[in-house]
Amino acid sequence: MFLVRDGQIDQLSHLFARHHVKLFNYFVMLTGDRAVSEDLTHDVFLRMLRFRHTFKGKGSCISWMFQIARNVGIDHYRKNRHFDPLHEICSDLKSEEPTPFDESAKKQQIEILHQALQKLSRKHREVILMARFENLALKEIAKILNCPVNSVKVRIHRAIKELGAIYAVLAEVQQDVA
Known about the structure:
mainly alpha
């Protein structure tokens, strides 16, 4: 990123090759829409190029990039308040379980988890995605969210607690239906 910042714009292609899948997956989990996620991922790299002069190198390039991604996501959310995040359920996931019953149960659990994620507040959903799906370090998340590490820990704890409660209710409803 230092090279891009200093004028070697062609070096951004290396960053794109290395990080676009991670950003795309983040946006898919946030929005539930693959086409929108592609657009948002490209927007991140366009903003990285436009605001390259703001990269100071005090933190990691990934933290800076995810801060931009978070801002892109917030902008998208503000423009499209009517969109329903995570409306697509991952039906293509293959189970390593040996029996069809186990495979069906696992798919049902994944579906309930995605529904539970969908019901989380955006603030809690994004911190869960960063911490558990993108495996970002607490310090990186704190830098992205512009808050202390302890606040990130509290948000993650509350998000997981809320996710567990929502999951339990959805699983009970699902069991009553079956």
